[in-house]
Design goal:
Three copies of one chain form a homotrimer.
Chain A: H1 3-12, E1 22-23, E2 32-33, E3 43-46, H2 53-59, E4 64-67, H3 71-79, E5 83-86, H4 90-101, E6 110-111, E7 116-117, E8 122-123, E9 128-129, E10 134-135, E11 140-141, E12 146-147, E13 152-153, E14 158-159, E15 164-165, E16 170-171, E17 175-177, E18 182-183, E19 188-192, E20 196-199, E21 202-205, E22 211-214, E23 219-220, E24 225-228, E25 233-236, E26 241-242, E27 247-248, E28 259-260, E29 265-266, E30 271-272, E31 277-278, E32 283-284, E33 289-290, E34 295-296, E35 301-302, E36 305-306, E37 311-313, E38 318-319, H5 320-330, H6 333-349
Parallel strand pairs in A: 2-3, 3-4, 4-5, 6-9, 7-10, 8-11, 9-12, 10-13, 11-14, 12-15, 13-16, 14-17, 15-18, 16-19, 17-22, 18-23, 19-24, 22-25, 23-26, 24-27, 26-28, 27-29, 28-31, 29-32, 30-33, 31-34, 32-35, 33-36, 34-37
Antiparallel strand pairs in A: 1-5, 20-21, 37-38
């Protein structure tokens, strides 16, 4: 694809203005893209504030670059004879460019003969159902859904239009996916929550009869598990993105646009607001409430209430700035203890 | 189901005495159940000590309630015109009520034609084997077992009667499941333990030739992995319940009735007593020994020996009460360090 | 197998010298192996420095033993009438002995009729493809590979010769496995990295168009997930062994011979040197660089740069020896705080 064709595409996607500064430099043919320190001739790359920009640009071997709105960098690119365009958000531009250079694979409509579809299931038009898929009784599979090989839908699973479920993922009864959800390989949605009542004869299982609702455009990572509750719903807000190997307990509710990194665990009944970001391996205790746009750094453990907009760290989680100071002090604890011993000795000498 | 019919069921299950206080209030027809703050007409709910009971009851819209043995609450329910019954353990009653209102799905006996069963395998009567299941050589599948879609039994797997294995779970050679075990979707039992011997040419794998034994009524969560050892057994005690994404290393032995929450990791050779409870994301180091009924709070890291009945927290784990005080002090470390600096300055002024 | 036959095997494998001290003691027939405290007649066991050797030997019921090069132990074994041989590395000898006593199951060449192989895929000689496997377009499956039941290869996956992929594992487009790799059950290789760009309309997915490269003899545990990057490669160095439920983010690169224990999480773009060892539940922040042969103890959280050969612990990770002292001091924080209060009170009395 010519660089100029790519620019047209970026404009169509709304990430590039007609007036954006640019330089075609012979309008190179682009066959792919790469990171700025790895790109070769024929490849596109991008620079973002935060990179060491001038140095990166000086040695970059890409044929074309997406630059931030920085005249100095643009001049440097010009001097190096590179094609470039300047955007407000080069990273977003790069996402659109990658989609243009590597269009996502299309999965043709049709049902593989080895798939087993219950006669009571309803399958919309344009659906792709791959080999060895199982669709249980009373399932609804909306228009344009893609079910990859080995996917199992238990009875009573509803997928709205345009959902994609990757290989060997499993959806249990009561799973309700709104439009455009993506479930990655080996994820499990709607499994029984971990609810047991202690009795004289051991643990008695609490039946888990509720629903798991994924609102529109939710994405669920590989191997992630989202449990259904005994009653009521587990609900993941629209546009929330969940990474791999995350555990979401029964009755958890998240707001819109949250981002949950890999290996996060959220215990039963926790409530997350909109736009909450949990970094890797964070744990959230049961019935914890987390306000809108709160952020927890990796490995932190949250319980109780976290206010909107707070940034927390540590276990138990405390404000991030405080935690940074406490952690620094922690690594000096032996010295601190020695100082106190010396002070005590001196005091007792008096 | 009428409320009175439900009461008969609870009595049959042994969770309700004939003499338990009750009020039928027109004997409402119940179509389901819900949490006390979400229940609507036609639904059952329950109140437990720990809820803010009177307030919850005052606004509850359920038609019927399971109450604790508290005359005040019973009178309040009476005044609101609700049907109710009082039990020693309303949560246990609610479990039985849910099972009555939502009887678990029955899976008919039979083998789906797409299943692949090795001729040397032995399959008991009343077994349900779903689509795309694989049963390897020399497997034993006991009476009434249910194997959901996509389950793979490698050769030499034994399931006693009444086991249920959910979709896409995998059982490796040497897996031995006693009666009534449940393996949830995408769990892996009997995989090779992570044993490697360092050599001049890199890691040499230690062959893992042992068994994994699940005693009666063990439940294994989605995506959980339980490894087999090089020699001997990994053994999970009767009635132990394991949540999602738990890792149990080779040669681990647990007692009866343990509860292991999501994302717990137990390294090779650890020994757990009876009734041990590990909260979410707990880690147990190899060869650690944990006494009966010990409890570890979430994210704690255990090594060495933990005495019976201890409640531990933190990493490395220390007694919970001590840990709570230490954690509180941790968040004041910067102040403490400042105080010590001031004291030192004052001392040097003398 | 006779003990003498086993010794021949060990010599062939290069773990036993002809001149190694030994005693046949009637050359017992060996039917299996066990840990030293569990072995019975007819079984082989081994002793390693670190065991309480003399005591273990005194009560050991094995018929034959692999011993370290310690004349005292050899004499004790002699006195007890056991067959024995002494090796430099009895544990390595035991690995070879187990492989001889329990030869790994052979999977015959052939393609199960229920497998679905795209006509454009290339399948080498001697390949075993089990039931319900799916091999997508343009895949290459090298000579002697074993694909167990339910494995899904998306289009454009390359397996070099002698790879083994266990049941229900999933390999995504762009996965490139060199010779002799092993992927355990339910692992997912080459899934889309967790890359999203924030926009006014929520998260915009960054297309993940790169490769995942596993070099020779890499082993990937059950349920482990290794993501592909937006551009470039995720690369796992030759001979690296990865345990269960590990998450490896997009663009991570590891050196040769690393060992990553269960539930480790490595965020995007991190770089590990050769021979790095990460214990269970360790987290590595994005773009962290870890030097050759560095070791992180369980549950530690690494970010920034870790020097070659360092042993680190804690979160944030600090040198292990320092962390041990800090952790000890942590558990005495309440006392320390009290001492400081007393010193302050005494000072203000002056």
């Amino acid at each position: 694809m010519r660089f100029s064709t790519l620019l047209l595409h970026l404009a169509q996607q709304g990430v590039l203005n007609d007036t954006a500064p640019r330089h075609l430099a012979g309008d190179p043919e682009l066959s792919g893209a790469a990171a700025v320190d790895q790109a070769a001739t024929g490849q596109l790359s991008f620079l973002m504030p935060g990179h060491q920009l001038s140095a990166a640009l000086a040695t970059c071997c890409a044929s074309a670059l997406l630059l931030p709105l920085d005249p100095e960098l643009q001049q440097l690119a010009q001097e190096r004879g590179l094609a470039w365009v300047a955007l407000k958000d080069p990273r977003l531009g790069f996402a659109e460019a990658l989609a243009a250079l590597h269009p996502p694979r299309q999965w043709p409509a049709g049902i593989h003969p080895s798939a087993v579809i219950d006669p009571s299931a309803s399958v919309g038009v344009g659906v792709h159902i791959a080999a060895h898929v199982v669709v249980g009784a009373d399932c609804l599979v909306g228009e344009g859904c893609v079910l990859h090989a080995g996917v199992v839908l238990y009875p009573d699973v509803h997928l709205a239009e345009g959902c994609e479920v990757h290989a060997n993922a499993v959806l249990h009864p009561g799973s309700r996916l709104a439009r455009g959800c993506v479930v990655h390989s080996n994820a499990v949605i709607g499994s029984e929550g971990f609810g047991f009542v202690p009795t004289a004869n051991g643990w008695r299982k609490m039946p888990q009869t509720g629903l798991v609702v994924l609102e529109e455009q939710v994405e669920v990572g590989c191997g992630t598990t989202i449990d259904r509750p005994s009653v009521g719903e587990t609900r993941i807000g629209a546009g929330t993105k969940i990474d791999n190997l995350v555990q979401i307990g029964h009755g958890v509710v998240t707001g819109r646009g949250c981002a949950l990194a890999a290996q996060v665990g959220i215990a039963g009944g926790a409530r997350l607001g909109n736009g909450v970001i949990l970094a890797g391996q964070v744990g959230v205790a049961n019935r914890t409430t987390i306000g809108d746009r709160a952020i927890a750094s990796s490995k932190s453990g949250l319980h109780g209430d976290i206010a909107a907009g707070e940034v927390v760290s540590g276990y138990p989680a405390i404000p991030n700035r405080l935690w940074l100071r406490c952690s620094a002090a922690f690594s000096k604890l032996p010295e601190l203890a020695r100082s106190v011993r010396q002070l005590k000795a001196a005091a007792s000498d008096h």
